[in-house]
Structure formats: structure tokens, C-alpha cells
Specification:
Length: about 100
């Protein structure tokens, strides 16, 4: 990856815009990396990888028997309303869990 200064990008933006189609261009300011200029195809590929990763995480959670949407919403509905008395005993807690299932 080519690394250039922010001033250079400002002065020759068109040139670096063309270059980023071939490879990512790192942008630095005061000796520190501040950003990366990349072509749209590379960006699209990264977003596709991210989407696949998130879909895999969701599938893993489902396969691991995490709660689904309906079950989660039922539990949230069963929670006490703001200002309501908090459940203190194990027996009360078990009763609330039974109501949800």
C-alpha cells in the first residue's frame, strides 16, 4: 500500500483517485495514518465479507440455541414496568419464567 500525505491528496486528488482503483492508498497527517482511499470494488468486497461474517454469527447463535426474536420479545414484555417492585425471591423469579414459556 502506498502511503501519502494529506496535503499531497489535496493537491493531486484526481491522480490518487485513479491509483486507488489499483491499490489502496494510505493517507497520513503529521506522520500518523489517518485514513485509506480505496476503490469501490475493494470496498464492496470488504462489505460482502462483513455481511457474510455477521450472517455466520447469527446462524451460530441460532444453532447454539440462543433465544429467537419471539422468545426475546416475550421475556421483555414480562419484565416489570419502571417503578414496579423488583422480584426478590427465587420462587417469584421461577413463576415469571413459567409465564414466559
Amino acid at each position: 500500500m502506498k502511503i501519502i500525505t494529506a496535503t499531497s491528496v489535496q493537491n493531486r486528488f484526481g491522480q490518487y483517485l485513479d491509483e486507488c482503483d489499483r491499490e489502496a492508498v494510505g493517507i497520513s497527517r503529521n506522520g500518523r495514518m489517518k485514513g485509506i482511499l480505496m476503490g469501490i470494488h475493494e470496498y464492496d468486497a470488504l462489505k460482502a465479507i462483513e455481511a457474510a461474517y455477521l450472517a455466520d454469527l447469527a446462524k451460530s447463535a441460532t444453532d447454539a440455541d440462543f433465544l429467537g426474536t419471539d422468545e426475546s420479545e416475550a421475556i421483555l414484555r414480562a419484565l416489570p414496568k419502571p417503578g414496579a417492585q423488583i422480584v426478590d425471591s427465587e420462587a417469584e423469579l421461577r413463576q415469571r419464567r413459567k409465564k414466559v414459556s
